[in-house]
Every structure is written in structure tokens, then in C-alpha cells.
Model the fold of this input.
Amino acid sequence: MKSNKSKKSKRPAAAVATLESQSNPLFWIYGASLVIALIAAFEVYWPALNGPFLLDDRHLTYMLPDAASIPLMGWLRQMRPLLMFSFWLNFQQSGAESTFGYHLFNLFLHFFNTVLIFFAVRKVLSWAKLEEPRARILSFFAAGLFLMHPAQTESVSYVASRSETLSVFFVLAAFVVFLYRRTAALSIPRVLCVLVLFTAAGFSKEHTAVLPVLFILTDYYWNFEFSLSLIWRNWKLYVPIAIGVGIAAVRILAILHNNPTAGFQMRDLPWNQYFFTECRVIWDYVRLFFMPFGQNLDPDVDISRNILAHGAVFALAGLLIVSVLAWIYRRRFPLASYGWFVWLILLAPTSSLVPIRDPMAERRMYLPFIGLLFVTLEFLRRWKVSRNALIGALAVVLVAEGALTYRRNLLWGDAVDIWKDTVSKSPAKYRPSFQLARVEYDAGECSEAVEQYQKTAALEPPQEDLLLDWALAYDCAGNSQEAIRKLQQSAALRPSAHVYSQIGMEFGKMGKYPEALAALQTAQGLDPGFAITYDYLGNVHTALGNLAQARADYQHVLALDPNNQPAREALARMSH
Done:
């Protein structure tokens, strides 16, 4: 007969495994680390979670007046369908009135990317034969630095930069799947998983096309069986990727053919001048990684028109020297050497030969960031200090980085503050000055906006859009006469129903009804379907006592724009 003791000792294998994992100290270390990381992420990014839409945020699909009527396929037909799908999800939840959901989505992506960074670094450090527990400590530090570094702020707190956080999520996921294979040759399920993730990355942003180069570089540095035959053994991965990248390249070139902000067709920014400039910019990125001060939403970068301009020759020489040294000493300093080439490869799509109107943007560091992490870990692994001293020093670094990120997010949480900061760092650049004037107007700081438009107009000859906005600021400040003057200057550059309707509105405010009617009639002639014109006509006719015509004007407004609340309210008043 079997004893009761033997019966009680029998437990399902899954239950035993669960109990063993929960009794393992590492289980609690990893679990606590996840909780701490999530709390830290919310702490440093909280000031920006209700921050405003800025720059490109205001030109995405969710800001269109008819966004609610656009079917899902209308969002997915755009160039980056997965990115647009994520914005569609946000729009279904909160429309475009609240930014919280958009920012929260970005923050969670950043957190998940941090987890993937940990696993990627952990695997590479094991290949580098770094002893425990230092390997684990440095992996946590690398992930923490990725999470807390202030240079990441633009990628997370700028809604339009979701193209970075989302695409990098899929890139890192594919990289982790690639790293944790059991044999040099990838199995079919693993190949399929990598291909799906790589495709998802490409549908989020195009710069992820360099991922297969990262795979090959990784195999070269850490797989001692590396040879051309290894690449051939993984043909099931590389051949579909090559075909996909080729198709995508043709599509991207077609899109860039007439793109005024990127591509080889920009006559004022040829590829060689962009390359010389980027040689300098790359070092600016390196400096931001190691010394994160002077961050700028819209940096004013001088273009190097030749290799000697602005020290481009020295920047290029520096890149070549470091690259040669990294190659020569790749056996002695494998992590640093590998990290340097990872950095250059992942930065290449935006910082090499293909011109982009903005030569520098902090968000472009988000994907290559992992390369400089490996460079940093090379030196930390050689630091001869006790474990407690190492943990203490690294913790101080992370706290300091988090404090800087928190301060940066305080600016991102307020449109006026972030643009004031930007203008102070790029005082001669037109766009940040223009943006500051706009957000001051939106904030009701009318006199300040008028003054800022004046400063902006001194930087470059003002175009019709600036003159129109300047006029609105004058109107807000109670100066209708000057508002009309700016509107007339705008109309002289580009006549439109919008400009002439505003002229009519201003004349109506001043009681100059014949001039108002003349301007509004001009607006009608330019665009009979511009609804606001008839709203202002209704106001003028009401002031003149022509209520029948005013009623017809307001009804015309609602026929063109059923959601026009001022016209609806005007008709309601007339009916009482």
C-alpha cells in the first residue's frame, strides 16, 4: 500500500514549475524591475501626457474636419498603414479634442521597447562572455538608460514621432527573435515570425529597411560560424526581405520624386551637401547621448556647402578614424566596435546621402540608440569597482537622466513654453518663431503674438499665411485697422475666399458695411462653397436690418456646413 506521504508529494509538472519560478529570486527581481520601470516612465513623462499637438501633429488624418467620416480603409491606404491604424484607434477613443490617449499610447510603446532592449542587450552580453551578476546589472542599466534618457523625449512626447516608437517596437521584437535562436540557421517558424515583424516595422516607418544589415553584422561579431554560407543557409529570411525592400524602395522613390521635404530632387540641398552636413550632425547626436544638454525641438543647422564648410572635413575624418579603429580593435573591444557600427548602420537612412529638409532631429536617435548603449557597456564592463559601488553609480546616472527628462517634459506639456525654449536656441530660424506666434495667439496672448509675428517677419519676407495669422492676432488685440492692412497684404500675394471673408468681417466690425459687402462678394466669387463667407454676410445683413437676407445667408451656411454652430445660433435668435 502506498503511503499518504507519497500521494501528497505528487503535483502536476506545471504547478511545480510555477512554484519553482516564483521561489527563484530572479523572478521577483524581474517583476519588481518591470513595476519600477513603468512607474518611472509615468513619473518623468507625466507632465507631457496632456501636452498639445505640435507641428506635424496638426496635419495628420485625425485633425481633418471630416476625420470622423473617413472609413478605416481610408486611413490604411496611406503610406504607413500600421501607424495610421494606431492613430485611428486613438481617434475612435477620444477624437482630436484630447491628446492624453495619443501620448499614453506612445509612452506604453516606449516602455515595451525598453523591455525589448533589456533582452537584446542581455543576449549580446552573454555572447561577450560577461560574467554574472555584472551582465545582469549592465543589462538593467542599458534598459534604464534607454527608458530615462532625455534625448528620447521627442520620440515619446511628440505624437507624430509615434512613427519612431512603433516602428522600433517591431524592429526590436524582430531583433530579439533573431538573437534568441538555438542554431545559426533559423527555423521556418522563426523566419516567419521575423518576416512578419519586419513587415510591420516597414508599414510603420521606412528607415527600418536596414534591419537585415543589423542581422548580418550581429552574426559576424557574435557567431563564430559566420561565413557567406551562413547567410545562404538563412536564405529563407534574406531573400524575402531583399524582395520586400526592393519593392518598398521603388515605392518610396516614387513618393519622394515630387516631395519638397526629402529626396534627391531638392535643388537647394543636393546629396553631397547633405552628406557633409550629416557628418557634423552625427557628432552632435553622439554629444547628446553622453552630454544631454541644449536639446532643441527645431535646431538651426548650417548647411555645409562643401567639405571644408563648418568643419565638415574634420567631422568626416573623425568618423573614418573611429570606424577604422573600431574595426582594428574589434577583437579587443568587441562591444564598443559592434555598437559603433550598429549606431552608424541604424542612423544611415536619415543621416547619410538622402537629403531631408531638416538635417537634424532628436527623434532620429531613437532606433540607433542601442548602438551607443553597447559602446557605453564596453567601458562599464571594464570598470573595476565592487558590485555595490557599480549599482550605486549607475543608479545615480539614471536618476540624473530621469530628472533631465522630467524637466524637458515640463516644456513639452505647454505649447508656449516649448516654442519659447526653441526660439531662444534657434533665434534666427523662421519656423520656430512663426510657431511661437501662433501658439501665443491660441493661448489668448494677443499682444505677445503680434510682437512675435513682427519678429518673424524680420527674419524672412512674410508669406500670405503669416500675414493672415498676423492679422488675426491684431484682431484679437483689438486693432481692426492694422488687421485689415495685413489681410490686404496677404490678399495681394494670394487672393482667397478665406482672406477676403476676414477682410469683410473686419470691415463689418468697424461698421463699414459697404466695404464689408464688397469684400465678401469678392470672397464669394473666389470660392462660392466657402461657408464662412455666408456667415459673415448674415452678420452684415443683420446689422443693416435685412433680416430676410440674413436668414437666407445663415441657411446657406448650414447647407454647406451642417455643423456650423454660429449660424445655427443666429437662426435660433432670429426665430424668437
Summary: Residues 100-127 form the longest helix (28 residues). Confidence is low (pLDDT under 50) at residues 1-9. The radius of gyration is 29 Å.
